[in-house]
Every structure is written in structure tokens, then in C-alpha cells.
Amino acid sequence: MLPHNRRDSQTGSQPRVRPESIRVSGNTGALGVHAEPNNHTSIVRTNMIDDTPPVTGPLHGLRVIDWTMWQFGPVSTMMLADMGAEVIKIESLDGDHGRHFESIRGRRAELDGDLSAYFEGMNRQKLGMALNLKTQRGVEIMQGLVKRSDVLVQNFRKGVAERLGLSYDDLVKHNPKLIYASASGYGPEGPDANKPAFALTAEARSGALWWFGPDDDTPHELDIADQIAGMMLSYGVLGPIVYRERFGVGQKVDVSHLGSMIWARGMQNGISFLKDFEVPRFDRKAPGQVLWNYYRCGDGEWLAFSMGQGDRYWPVFCQAIDRPDLATDPRFTNMTARFDNRRDPGPGVRQPSSRLLGAEARGRGRSDLGARAAQPGPARRSTGDGQRLRDRVRPPRDRSVEVSADPGELQRNAVVHSKDGARPRREHRADSNRPPGLHMG
Fold this sequence. Notes:
By secondary structure, this protein is α/β, with parallel strands linked by helices. It contains 14 helices and 21 strands.
């Protein structure tokens, strides 16, 4: 259950305490749910009293019930929390399965204190409650929360919420203005509506595994379906929030893994539908546009170029690699010529355009070539780009910013809506017995 947030008269902050009986309270007043720990509820405790003030933002004052697990749903509610909403995470008495995520690609994903980096990374800013929703009392407590909340997000397979009496039709009776967001693998209709799905199956069925690589290559996993779908789900909640403010009516929102991944390739799919052909896979060794590609440089590092206006930037690139002669070479002077020569440049031509550029790139260091060419982007690992993760997460040395009790710390808010520099709130962890560990291949 949620620790009761009481305002400290001396500091004005709201430290989170560890009571023996719990009353849920929110940003604007007591929620009015009171329950003793028993077979339908479990106290959520923190390892410390956290006096971090809540992050304020455009959704401040909005209460969200997060009845989700794994990644798709938790990411969406975390995004709402980052924008200032109060998010109450509802878990079973055993906890979200993501708490027991132990390894990824054979590497350990556990933190000190028997915590999961997977879980902690997508449940910041949230309060928590453990409920046994298989009991009538547990369902009643959930209904009490819904009466005093604005949004409920759930990502259970079709039929689960209905069986428990927690479907949209059930809960809207308790709160006509409720925004009920449902996340699923394949949507609420069709022959596969009640089938479970994870990110990889959504990527497979959407065609995403075939986005990259030569035509005769195998499929390639992207690892983005959960994040893409999570963004779509949070986006899907924002529209009904505005609608409710204008017209006083709640709505049901449905977002699927499959639909989100089809949308993610919207440009290519749009071209395919309008022109009636399949957009080819991106083949690095034979790209359709040699200046929209990535090449290995002489120092062993990779550099990506995103010069979509190839004819405009071709002379600039030729100067950058000290080959001004290529700018006027008829085999490479325009996009069509470079495309025609990307594989087999014909008799008398030493090498195709993509291989030629690769050879020129290998003769230079990444920093040198990147400084001279237009629109470069170092092809780094996600934790190696100073403009990305390393700029936002620091090793634990300066405890000035705290996120989910992670070993790393955020340097800035996830969304730049707050001007007051308020720190993200820690996630409240539930006490539970850990089932066997889960691993991602």
C-alpha cells in the first residue's frame, strides 16, 4: 500500500514514512482508501524516508493508476509521471515480473540490494501498492482508487480485466470521467485479440525484423517495440485528458504493440501503400543513397552520415575526403549515377561508390572526417555518446539527483517542463518473495 504523504510543518516537504496501516493520499487531498495489511493488500516500504519534492509539470494534479507490468505499460506511465502526474503502481503480492529480471544477453542485470536494473529503470517517479485482485476486497480497494483517479492504464491480455470486474465497462460506473488506457499485443479486435505478445513478436509481425540488412540476410531484432508502444500509449492518454477538460467525458484508449510498430515505420509504409511496392531493406554495403550510410574510419570507429540531399552535399563530402575529382566524375555526379554504381560500377571503374567511400573513410580518423564533412554522427554504443546517456546518468559520486534508487543518477529531467529543478521521485518498492529469475536472450 502507499505510505501516507504528510507535509512536514518545518520544511514544507512531504517525507514518505513507513506506517503499519496505510491511507492513500495524493497531491490535492486524501484519497479516502484505508486498509490494513492482510491477504488482499501489502505494505510498500522504502529503504529510507525520501523528502524529495514531487516533480511538477503540465500533468501536475492528475492521478494515474498504473496496473501494468514488464515494459510497454510501465514506460507509458513513467512518461506521464515525468510530466508531473501522480502515478500509483498496482502490483500483485508477488510484485511486477520485471522485478525479477536477472540477465540480458547473458549479462547480469541485478543491482545491489537484490534489485533489478530493468525494473528500476522504468518505474521512477511512482508510488506503489500491492493488491490481491483475486479477492473481492482487493477489487473493492481498486474501485475506491479509481473513483478518485483520472487515468487507469493496464496491459493485461484481453479477458483478464473483464474476469476480475475491472474492465472499462465495470470501472466507468464508479468514475464516468475515467480515462481507461488498455495496452495489448494485437489490439482489442480480430482473431489474435486475446493472444499475449512481447516486443519481439510485435517486431516480427510488423515486419520490423526485415528493416535492415541485405536482401538475403536473416531478420534482425531491434529492441524498440516496448519503448515505441509505451510512447504511443502515453500519447494516447494525453488526447482524452484534453477532451475531458473540454467536455467532461472520459474515454477508453486502445494501443497495441503491433499497431505501434507499424506506425513506427510510417514513412516507408506510407510510400509502400501509395506506390504499391515494398520499400527495400536498408543494406549498408549497397545503400540506395551513399551519403545516408555509416562507414568505418581509419581509427576503427564508425561514422554515420545523414545527408539526405545527396546532390547538394556530394561536392562538400568530396572536399572533406580530399577527393574533389569525384565531384565531377560522371559516374558519381548525381544521385541516380551513384545509385547505379553502388554495386557494380561497370568496366574500368575501380570500385563501387559505397565501397569507395568506405575506403576513403578508413583512411581518416573519425574526428577528422567528422569535423570536415557535413551532417556527421558518430556511430557509438548507447552509453558512449556524451550527448545522450552519459550526459544524463552519472556514477554515484554526487548524490544531488536521485532516480528510483538506481546506482546512476539523472542530471536533468526526462522532459523539460519544470523550471524549478525539482528532482524525480524514487519508486516505492514492495516487499515480496522473488520467484525464479527471468532472462532475456
